[in-house]
């Protein structure tokens, strides 16, 4: 393995290859995943399952309306939508991983979308839209508002419980 051709062939042919072995190498010499790096799948609560399902429905509606109005929308709107999709995927990842601040990030994402970005996005996307597209927009708005209220309630209940637990522990001491 000292020559550069052997190192190059090892990169091309795979991790189990060494000089004098078959084309793809010996299967028993291929390294497996380390036990510490295996993925851990957490069970989501029913709240997060329903929340993510409704969020998926609303995102699908937004994306389908965007695709319907593809030719009439300015390019700079798409840059904003791509950034929003990235933030959306990042927040969903926080939920699936079980991060402590997932509910706060979901609440902030929905609050920013509802207050600042949604009116401008619909103005660009629904310029001269059909009644069906406006109906889809109305449904997506209602779902997004319900998700915002649910995430605010979840954050309030979650942190209210933790603050009350901390307060009762301080009183006992």
From TrEMBL:
Residues annotated as transmembrane: 46-65, 77-100
Keywords: Membrane, Monooxygenase, Oxidoreductase, Transmembrane, Transmembrane helix
Sample GO molecular function, one term: monooxygenase activity
Name listed for the protein in its UniProt record: Alkylglycerol monooxygenase-like
Annotated source species: Tropilaelaps mercedesae
